[in-house]
C-alpha cells in the first residue's frame, strides 16, 4: 500500500515475473531518503526514461539502461542488461564509433548538448511564476515537466560515452602500470562549475572581512546573519554581490539529488552563509583557497611529467597525451553536469510545483505550500486544470479529495523513513560486471549478498576515493539541516554527497560515505580539495557516531574507529 500510494505505476512487485527477472539495487547514492510522490513522478520518472532513451540513441552495447521503481518507500534501480550476444554485437560498432569521436572531440560533443540544457533552464528561470495567471501557470508547469524529461535524456546521452572514454583511458594507463588511485592525480585541478562556485564564496568571504563584517558572521547564527546585514547601510555593496552570486549559482537543491522536497539556495541561502562562517577558522589557520588549488595543480603536473618520462618512445608519449586529455575532459563532466542537470533541472521543476502549491494553499486545498509535494504530477495537473476550468467548483470538488490524501501520504512517508528496505532484491548476480555500477554507484561483489548492513563495525573498507591519511573527530551528517554542525577539520561521515555539499569540503579534514565509487561526487570533490576520502563503505553512518575519533586512509580505502565518543 505504501509504494502504490506514492506511485502505483512504479511500484516494485517482487512476485511479478518481470521484477523477479532483473537485479534491483537501492539507490542511496541519489536518493537515500524516502521519496515524495511528486519526486517519484517527475524527476525519478524522467531519470528512468532518460536511461532508456540514451541507451538506444548511443547504442550502448551491454545495457538498455535501468528501470526505477519503489520498494518500501525507497528508490530502486533495476539494471536492464542485454543477454543476447548477437544484439550486443550489433550495437558495439555504433557505440565504439561514438566513443572514438568523443576521445578526440569531447568538448564539441558536450557543448552541443549542454547548450540546449542551459538555454532551456534560462528560459524557465526567467519566468516569475508568482505573476502568472492560472492558465499560464498550468502551461508553465507542463512545459517544465517536459524540459526536465528532455534534460535527463541529455544527461545519459552524455554520461554513457563519457564513462566509456574514462574506462578506455583507465585501461590504457593500467597497461602501463598506473593504478586508478594514481591516475586521478593526473586528472584533477581543473576549473569546474563546482570549484567556480566555491571560489565565488571565497571572494564573498574575503570581501566581508575587508568591509569589517567578519565578526558579525562569527558571532551570529547563519540563519540570522542576512537579516542583520540588510539593516546595515555599510553592507549594501556586499549584499549586492551576494544577490548576484545567488542569481547565477542559487539553483542548487540543498539535499536530495532526485527529489524536489528541499529548498534551493535562492530560497534558503543559509548553507552559503554557513560556508562563509566556516572559511574564517581555515583562514586563521593559514589556509588559502588559491594556494590550495595551486597545490593540486602542481601535484598534477609533477605526476604527469614523471609518468611521461617512463614511456618508451615518442609514439607512446603522443598516445599518452591524447588519452590523458580525453580523460581530463570527461572527468570534469562528472561535476559540471550535476550543476546543470541534476541540480538545475530539479530546481526549475521544484519552482513550478511550489508556485502551484501557493495557489492551492491560498484556496485551502493543502495545509502548507510544501504539501504540494505529496501529490503526484498528474494529480497536481488535474487539480490545476480544474481550477482553470471552474475555480469555484474545483475548490469545492477537490476539498473532498486532496486534504485526506495529503494527510495519508505524510504518514506513509514517516513509515517509509523507518522501513527496512533491503539493499538488493530480485535476480542478484554472483558478481558485479557493470563498470558504471562499480565506478559510480560503488556496487562491489561483497554487497551483492550483504551479511549484515546494520552491524556496527570499528573497521570499514571501501574505495580509495582520494589519497592521504588523516585522523580526526567524526561529524555524521544525514541531511542538509546538519550542515551547520560541521566544524573545521572534522571528518565528514555521510550517506552520500552531491554538488550542493561541495562547500563543506573547504572546511573538513576528510570524508567517508556509505555509497559511491571512484567516480562519485564525494571522491571527485575530495581530490579537488586535497583531502582524504573513503567512499562506498555501505556502513559508515551506522557504525560511526558524532565525536568518535576516526582514522581514514584514502590510499587504500580503510576507515578505523580509534576511540568511541
Main attributes?
11% strand; 3 domains; alpha+beta; 565 residues; single chain; eight-stranded mixed β-sheet; Glucose Oxidase, domain 1; globular; four-stranded antiparallel β-sheet
Tally of distinct domains: 3
N- to C-terminal distance: 41 Å
Shape: globular
Structural class: alpha+beta
In the predicted model, the low-confidence regions spanning at least 5 consecutive residues are: none
CA gyration radius, whole angstroms: 24 Å
Strand content: 5-15%
Q: Describe the biggest sheet?
A: 8 strands, mixed
Number of helices: 20
The residue fraction in helices comes out at: 40-55%
Mean residue pLDDT: 91
Strand adjacency order, main sheet: 5-12-11-7-8-9-10-6
Number of strands: 12
Summary, kept brief:
The chain is of the alpha+beta class.
Could you please describe the fold and organization of this structure?
With 565 residues, the chain is of the alpha+beta class. The protein has three domains: 1-176 and 328-428, no CATH class; 193-253 and 260-325, no CATH class; 454-563, Phosphohistidine domain (Glucose Oxidase, domain 1). It is 55% helix and 11% strand. The chain contains 20 helices and twelve strands. The protein has helices at 2-7, 17-21, 37-58, 85-125, 134-175, 180-183, 193-210, 214-219, 222-230, 236-249, 270-284, 289-308, 314-362, 377-389, 391-399, 402-417, 435-439, 445-448, 521-528, 540-543, and strands at 23-26, 63-71, 74-81, 424-426, 459-461, 463-466, 469-476, 491-494, 510-513, 533-535, 549-553, 558-563. The strands form two sheets. It has an eight-stranded mixed sheet, covered by helices on one side. A four-stranded antiparallel sheet has the order 2-3-1-4. Strand 9 (510-513), helix 19 and strand 10 form a beta-alpha-beta unit. The longest helix is centred in the middle third of the chain and has 49 residues, at 314-362. It is globular, with a radius of gyration of 24 Å. The model has no long low-confidence stretch (mean pLDDT 91). This is PEP-utilising enzyme mobile domain-containing protein. Residues 487-557 form the PEP-utilising enzyme mobile domain. It comes from Desulfosarcina ovata subsp. sediminis. InterPro entries: PEP-util_enz_mobile_dom, PEP_Utilizing_Enz, Phosphohistidine_dom_sf. GO terms for molecular function: transferase activity, transferring phosphorus-containing groups.
